Amino acid sequence: MSALLDIPFVTTGRELERRRSHAPEQGDWSWTHLVGRLVELQNEGASSVLSFAFSLVYEAQQDGEPVAWISASDSLFYPPDVIENGIDLEAVALVRVNSAKDAGRAADKLLRSGAFGLVLLDLGSDDAFPTPLQNRLVHLADEHRAAVVCLTEVSVAREKSLGPMVSLRAAARRQRECECEGGESCQLVVARDKHRGLRWTYREDRRGPVGMR
């Protein structure tokens, strides 16, 4: 076996997995690739989490899919910036709740209707999101061909992930350098993807809000 491994271009499966785990690939962040899955999109401070979330909203709306936004957070997105990026806010169902658990229950009801292709839950720093509830959302997302995306805040106090039912977990980051005038470079770093089994990254160059150019 050792002699075989001395041959150029011959390696072991274990070595290939090690190389893959240390070499993130470029992936695809899109609504169509998230259908049927429970996704966690993490906000690591000054990030571009809303930009990536609304890129999914835009794609879903372009495909004629109704979208719901459930907020358990104290803050909300800035409507003019969203509209400027081509989102039809009048077609987005907005639900305000008091906790992550309530957000999950609201998502459960919306998904059971079969009317929504994308449901986003803005959970903020609340990580009280029971696994059985996540499990129901996964089954409903698969049954009704919808994507369920949870927006969370990363902190020292909370775990790195909402739970084992999360199919894809990504951290959104923002860098000021960008080739486009008045823009910014937005990057997703995917730490878990059960479909691909690899860590990967995704990058977009975007124009910032009017007040930040």
Task: Write a brief caption for the model.
The protein has 213 residues and is α/β, with parallel strands linked by helices. It is built from 7 helices and 9 strands; from the N terminus they run ααβαβαβαβαβαββββ.
Description:
- With 213 residues, this protein is of the alpha/beta class.
- The chain has a domain of 146 residues: 3-Layer(aba) Sandwich (Rossmann fold), CATH 3.40.50.300.
- 30% of the residues lie in helices and 28% in strands.
- It is built from 7 helices and 9 strands; from the N terminus they run ααβαβαβαβαβαββββ.
- Strands 1-9-8-7-2-6-5-3-4 form a 9-stranded mixed sheet, sandwiched between helices.
- α5 links the parallel β3 and β4.
Write the layout of secondary structure elements.
Elements (H helix, E strand, L loop, with lengths): L1 H4 L7 H9 L3 E2 L4 H4 L3 E6 L5 H14 L4 E5 L7 H6 L7 E5 L3 H13 L5 E7 L6 H13 L3 E7 L14 E8 L7 E11 L6 E8 L6
